Amino acid sequence: MPVKDYYHDVVARALIKDGWTITDEQVKVIVDERNLYIDLEATKDSTGLIILVEVKELDDVRSPIEALANAVGKYFLYRTSLDDKGINTPLYLAMSVAAYHRILSETIGKLAVGHGRISLLIFDPEQEEVVRWIP
Q1: pLDDT tens, residue by residue, 2-25
Q2: What is the CATH T-level fold of the domain 8-134, as seen in this structure?
């Protein structure tokens, strides 16, 4: 099993505050002999909606560009693997509000999110709250 991302538990608590139930952690997707792990699966009881969430931090890192490339690459691998298996569960990339206002607000961040068709969950790590959903 992979190590939890720095904000993994914070995002889980933010989702719970937002009315979600965490139904699984480290969701395994198998492609041939490769195991991929998506951080969280959550269900909204009021609607029955199920989502998958990959947690990444892009703000407090040595190289925001390397972190962005890693996050976008993982999102792409997870989304294409889910698509290949016919799994249509929405996949979100969880980012802190600071990362959203820094690297993701720069041209390179906007291009990556736009061209990658990445759905975002923006969270406030101090308040442990979901700030914004960008499908």
Answers
A1: 778 789 999 999 999 999 999 999
A2: Trna Endonuclease; Chain: A, domain 1 (3.40.1350)
